[in-house]
Structure formats: C-alpha cells, structure tokens
C-alpha cells in the first residue's frame, strides 16, 4: 500500500494512484504498471527521458485498425510494393503521438506532403492509389521513420543552471507549414 502526503490528498478526492515512479529511480514494475509510458509518452524514469518510437504501418485498415504488422528495418523493402492512399498516409501521420511538439521538425515534413496530396493538383479520393511520383515521395519519407527511436530529456533546465530562465522562440512564417 502506498502512503504519504500526495496519496492521502488524492484519496480525499476519490482519486487513487495506479503507480508512483520518481525520476532517477530504476525502470521497474511501477513503470510497467503504467505500460512504460506516462500520459501516452514513453518514459525512462532512470534516465528521466521521454522516448519516441516511430511505428509505420501501411497495411489496409479494417474498422480503423491496421490489418498488418508495422514495417521494421527487416521488412522495409515492403514499402516499395505497398498500396498507398490518402487514407493510409493520413493514418500514418496521425499515428504519431507528440502532444509536446518534440517531433515537429520531423512531422512537419509529413504534414506538408500530406497537405499537398489533398490539393486539387492530385484530385484523389480517399482510397485511390497514389501515382508513381507521389508513391515514391511517400516511400522515401516513410523510410526515414522506420525503426527510429528518439529520446529527449524531460527537464529543459540543466541541473547546473543558475539565475532566471530565458525562453527563446523561433518560428517560420512559411505558407507551407503554419
């Protein structure tokens, strides 16, 4: 049984912890109870880092679920013969869960390409197969993501930092990526 101030406060509100894991503690059964993720993001408590594993699945969908396995480094050659459509490409792009925006420099490439595919230039229905040029472009993009695992520190402030934090923001005024 867990105890402590936080547990007592939460229980008074009728909320109960499924598991508690602190940063710096070894990844153990507490993190397993959370499915290895916190708020849907992969997390290593021992290293205090978020972990993103890209899943590329270009199989047909049945009731919104893929009918085949994710593409791996061993099966990457299957992308060449995959039947890609607007529906499949949109599904792959939307399957990348990144609520904080760490992956935006990568996902923006997919989103701009997706936006182009929805233009009148291509005039595609949801399940129309992509033409050769567009298919090659998507296969090349998807190859970049197969098997990729990225990690980011959870804390953006170094332990040795002193003084006030300063936030510097940069953005692109592009019409392509807004």
Keywords:
178 residues, 4-stranded antiparallel β-sheet, globular, 6 strands, two-stranded antiparallel ribbon, 28% helix
Q: Name the shape in a single word.
A: globular
Count of strand segments: 6
Terminus-to-terminus distance: 49 Å
- Given helix and strand content, the structural type is alpha+beta
Mean pLDDT: 88
Number of helices: 5
Element-level helix/strand string: HHEEEEEHHHE
- Biggest sheet statistics: 4 strands, antiparallel
Tell me the strand percentage band.
Answer: 5-15%
User: Helicity, in percent?
Assistant: 25-40%
Low-confidence spans: pLDDT under 50, at least 5 residues?
A: none
With strands numbered from the N-terminus, the spatial order across the biggest sheet is 1-2-3-6
Radius of gyration of CA atoms, rounded to a whole number? 21 Å
Describe this structure in words.
The protein is of the alpha+beta class and 178 residues long. It is 28% helix and 11% strand. The protein contains five helices and six strands. The chain has helices at residues 5-12, 29-33, 86-94, 104-117, 132-145, and strands spanning 37-38, 41-44, 49-53, 61-62, 65-66, 149-153. The strands form two sheets. A four-stranded antiparallel sheet has the order 1-2-3-6, with no helix packed on it. Strand 4 and strand 5 (65-66) form a beta hairpin. Helix 3 packs antiparallel against helix 4. The longest helix has 14 residues, at 104-117. It is globular. The model has no long low-confidence stretch (mean pLDDT 88).
């Amino acid at each position: 049984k867990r105890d402590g101030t936080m547990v007592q406060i939460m229980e008074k509100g009728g909320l109960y912890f499924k598991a508690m894991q602190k940063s710096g503690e070894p990844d153990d059964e507490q993190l397993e109870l959370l499915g290895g993720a916190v708020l849907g993001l992969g997390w290593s408590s021992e290293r205090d880092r978020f972990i993103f594993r890209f899943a590329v699945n270009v199989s047909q969908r049945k009731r919104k679920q893929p009918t085949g396995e994710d593409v791996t480094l061993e099966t990457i050659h299957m992308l060449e013969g995959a039947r890609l459509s607007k529906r499949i490409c949109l599904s792959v792009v939307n399957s990348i869960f990144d609520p904080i925006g760490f992956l935006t420099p990568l996902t923006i490439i997919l989103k701009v390409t997706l936006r182009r595919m929805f233009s009148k230039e291509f005039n595609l229905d949801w399940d129309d197969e992509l033409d050769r040029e567009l298919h090659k472009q998507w296969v090349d993009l998807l190859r970049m993501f197969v098997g990729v695992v990225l990690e980011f520190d959870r804390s953006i402030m170094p332990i040795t930092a002193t003084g006030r934090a300063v936030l510097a923001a940069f953005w692109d005024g592009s019409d392509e990526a807004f």
